[in-house]
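Your task
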Amino acid sequence: MKNKSRFLCLAISFFLITPWVFAAERILIQVHLFQGVWMEGQPGLKQAEVLAAASRPELSSLKDKVTGSESELTVAVINALSDLYGLQTVEDLFVHEKQWNGKVPLLDDVVLGKLVAYRIKLAPKMLSPQKFTLRATISKTNEGSLRTERTRETELNEAYKTTKNDKMMEVIVDQELVLEVGDPVIVGVPYGGRAYFMMVLATVGDSGAKKPEPEKARKPDLVAAPNAIIQVRPSYPEELRQRHIGGEIGLRIKIDEKGIVQGVNIVKPLHPYLNYSTVQAFRNWKFESVLRKGKPVPAEFLYTYNFNPLDYAQENAWGEETYGETDPLSLEKLRTVLGRSGDYCDKLAGAVLDFFCEERIKETHYSLLKNIHWAMLIVKNEPMGDGWIMVGKNVQIMDPKLTKRNDFLCDYQIVRKGGKIDERRFILKENGRKIAEQKKILEERRFSGLSSLFAPLRVLAGDRQPRFNYRIIDEEKIRSKKAHVIEAVPKSGNEDGIWSARIWVDKESYQILKCEIEGVPIDGYEDVLNDCAILNIKPIFLTTHEYGIEKSGVTFPSGSKVHVAYPGIDYRGPIEKLSINLAYDKYKFFTVETEPKIIK
């Protein structure tokens, strides 16, 4: 009887303990270290802080990224830290993974950085299959202790010897944590005018399988260019045509066995916008199949396209206005709205203006990996609707280490007289730092090119209306004012960088209350144009302007937003490229003069 009781106790103990053991054998501990730099004026950290989703709801979105790629989680952490602390930059120092079997009391490793070596000590202790304590200690050698001309193997050996001497190491993080599987925790530690941020994540499973070596793509032999069966003419903005920016652009085109274009590379570039528009157009071309031994095969060939200002000038006869309404009453209402809002835009276009205001600009840039050309070799492009999707291997194209954030406070001035515009931004603060130089001008085309005040003129001015098709799609309230919502679509498909637009027109005064434009500006966003030419994609590019300030019958911008993302690269959704927020306040007007009647 005693033996049976003993056996029963052992069996129960086995079943209770076994899940813990097997769970522990599959626990992978990931340690990720970042370094942040504060914007001037930010208080920074006074002591170490532990951030978890349970205590900081801003971090709850990180849990959704745990099952994604390592780079995707890195980007999410950088964004979260930047938003929480108002950091100017966040540098990704290293990521280290270690398997834990639930028995080893101390995990001790060395990681090489660019200039220093790091020693990582992890002391975990199991509390339950999904929960354990962990003491994480990270130390580093002195700056510049690694000599880059030596082999990494030699550096690693010598760094390992150095890190064994605690007197030669500086402890930067030493924290006791309670971790749950799948729930990332971040520790922030002050360090001079900067801070270190350690993210620790525990997951169940083996350490990442060995990453596959890049496939060596064989470059096919070039063939003679086959005849084009379907052609789509690239967009040639009138502004570039009038500036006589044109000529031949050289392409390397890849087609499948059916003659459908699979990829377009620029080998002889022109203006960034013309490079971009050419790639966009040629994605929709189709050529005759290339035959080899009587069978159609994939092929690549060189092709030349010519942007001739004279040829395109013959196409710019837009004809009469086209309306997207068939009902007589709706058509009459649309004509009235377009006529009177067009009058407003024409008056604004000829107005004499002299004012300044305070402008706050916040922007975040993400950059492509430097080896994007190599990354593109291991994926397959497939057309899907208006965009292309990459299938096969999941490719991370954005480099979280190159994320940049800017915060400008400007004295924004506009003087318009005799048809000439003098627009200036004098920087008052840059990334929290006051500018000692009194007249430092912010000269960035990506801001001045937005032209928030005059953006509606691109769509509704009288001389522009023949270029668009219009319809009233809705009625909405904006700041307690009733507005017609007008949709405008270019007849050419792309009118000086505009693909489509929506304009909110006050039902009583016919002033512009809001303007939303989809399309890439011709100047100021060359990095976006170049990226999209490389990736063979059409970006998401949406600019929104709101007009909440009124003076002498003219509405002035209260805020603008720019959102840019790259679709079709990752099955999880569009990848963020650029975000800009502009806010206008504290207007001071010297002159706002128009003709006596702004609205007929």
Notes: The longest helix spans residues 2-25.
